[in-house]
Amino acid sequence: MNQKAIGVFDSGIGGLTVYQALKKKMPQEKVVYLGDTARLPYGTKSAETIIRYSEDNAFFLMGKKVKIIVIACNSSSSYALPHLQDKLDIPVIGVINPGAEAAVRGNSKIIGIIGTTATINSGTYEKTIAALNPEMDIVSQACPLFVPLVEEGWLDHQVTRMVIGEYLLPLKKKGIEKLVLGCTHYPVLKKAISGVIGEEIELIDSARTTTEKVFSILTSLGWMRNSGKRSQDEFYATDFPERFQKIGEIFLRRKLVKVQAVSF
Amino acid sequence: MNQKAIGVFDSGIGGLTVYQALKKKMPQEKVVYLGDTARLPYGTKSAETIIRYSEDNAFFLMGKKVKIIVIACNSSSSYALPHLQDKLDIPVIGVINPGAEAAVRGNSKIIGIIGTTATINSGTYEKTIAALNPEMDIVSQACPLFVPLVEEGWLDHQVTRMVIGEYLLPLKKKGIEKLVLGCTHYPVLKKAISGVIGEEIELIDSARTTTEKVFSILTSLGWMRNSGKRSQDEFYATDFPERFQKIGEIFLRRKLVKVQAVSF
C-alpha cells in the first residue's frame, strides 16, 4: 500500500486547497487529483445527483490504484460519504467530520458555519457537531457568491469585502467565536474574511483539518510512503483542463503541471 | 403543425426571460421548457461538452412533439446551433443572431457585448455582427458574476451595482451606444444596468429579439396556433425542480406551476 497514491476528488478546483495542505504535510506522498469540471458545481444539485457523480469520481480514482480517497468537496461529503464508505474497500475521508471535530475542540460555545447552498441545506455540519457536543450553539449561512468571486480572482477586492460583510457580519453580531469554512474554495478568502470580521474569530480551514485526519489514518495503518523522493502528482479534469489550470494557479500560487482531460 | 408546442431549452433558468417574451407576444402558443439544471452552467464548459448536452436537450424536446426549438442559452447558441440545425428537421433558433441583427440596426458605430466566459471567448457575437456590418466597432466583456448575483436575488443591491460598474464602466468610457445582453439571465438586471451606465445606452435584450424571430418564422410558415384558448405550458428540469421553481419565480415575478424532474 505504501507506494500507492492518495486519491482526491472535488466537483472542480476548490479541492486544490486540500491538495496543497496534503502536500505541505506529506510532501513525499503522490496525489492523484480529479476535478469533475464538466458537471460542477455540485453545490446547487440534489442529493441523488451528487451521489451518482461522486461514485463516478471514486471509481475513476480506484482505477488509478489509490490507497485512500479524500472527498475534497463539502457538498459531496455531505451526501455521498457513507455511500462511498460502504461501496469501497479502502478508507474514504470527507471534509465535514474533520472540520466539525476542530469546531468543538476548546471552549467556544457559538460556532458559525458557512458553505454552498447544498452544504448548508443538508444540515450535515449541524448534525455532526451536535453529535459531538449537543451544547454547542450553531449559526449557519449559505454564501453562494464566494465561489464565483474566487474563480474571478477577486481575492482582494472591494466587492468581495462587501459580500463578505453582507453574509458574515450578522454571524459576528450573534457572537460566533469560530467560523467553519465549509467549502474548499473558501480558504483562499481567509485573509479577506478575517479583514472584515476581525482576527479574533478563529477560521477553521477544513483543508488543514482533513489533512491531519489523512495523516493519522495513514500513520496508524502503516501506509505512509517512506521513499524520500518526491513523486509526480497527476491532475485530471472532466472538462476544460485549460480553465482548471488557469484557476488552479490562482489557488496554488504556482504553475500547475499539465492537467489531463478525462470523460466518463 | 399549428397545434404543436414551441420547445425552449436552456442550461437552467435564464431562458425563462425568453419564455416570458414568447408568451407576451404569442399568449395562445403552448411552450415546453427544459432547463438542464443537473449540468448547468454551460458558460464555463468546452465546445464539445456544450454540443453534447444541447443535443440531449433537443432530443428530449423532439420527444414532446414541438414544431420549433429555441435555444434560449447563449453558450449553447454559440456552439451548438449549426449542429442542431443540421441534425433536426424542424426550425432551430438561437439567441445570438437576433441580438446581432438588432445591434447593427440604426446608426450606432460602437457596440458593447456582454455574456458568460464561454460566450465571450467563442467570439460568436463579434463574428455574427462583423458579417452583418464589417464597419462596426465591438467591445466585449465577460461578466461571470452576473448570473450568481441574479440567482441570489440581489437585483437591487449595492454589491450588484458595484459589480456592474466594475464590468461596464470601462465599456461606457469606450463610447458604446448599444449594449447586447448576451446571456439570458441579464434582462433581469436591465434596470440596475441602466441605473449604473445611464439610460442613453440602449440595452439589447435577446429575449425580445429572439421572440420577434420566432414570431416571423411561425407566421411565414403558417404554423401559428389559431385557437384562442391558453394552453398549459410544461416545465422540466434535469435536477432540483424545487430550486428551479424558486429562482424561476424571481425571473417571472409570479408563481410557477409544477416543474417536473426528468433525467437523461
Looking at the overall shape, the CATH architecture of the largest domain in chain A is 3-Layer(aba) Sandwich
Oligomeric state of this protein: homodimer
Strand order in space, largest sheet of chain A? 4-3-1-2-9-10
Query: For the record, what CATH class of the largest domain in chain A applies?
Result: Alpha Beta
Envelope shape of chain A: globular
Question: What is the H/E order of chain A?
Answer: EHEHEHEHEHHEHHEHEHEHE
Number of helices of chain A: 11
- Poorly predicted runs of chain A are none
Cα separation of the termini of chain A: 27 Å
The number of E-state strands of chain A comes to: 10
Most extensive protein-chain contact, per-chain counts: A-B, 23 and 23 residues
Helix content of chain A: 40-55%
What is the structural class of chain A? Answer: alpha/beta
Protein architecture, described:
The first copy, chain A, is built from eleven helices and ten strands. Chain A has 264 residues and is an alpha/beta fold. The first copy, chain A, has a six-stranded parallel sheet, with helices on both faces. Chain A has a four-stranded parallel sheet with strand order 6-5-7-8, sandwiched between helices. The mean pLDDT of chain A is 93. In chain A, β7 (178-181), α9 and β8 form a beta-alpha-beta unit. Chain A starts with a strand and ends with a strand. Chain A binds chain B through residues 37-40, 44-46, 49, 144-145, 147-149, 151-152, 158-159, 162-163, 166, 239-240, 243, and chain B through 37-40, 44-46, 49, 144-145, 147-149, 151-152, 158-159, 162-163, 166, 239-240, 243.
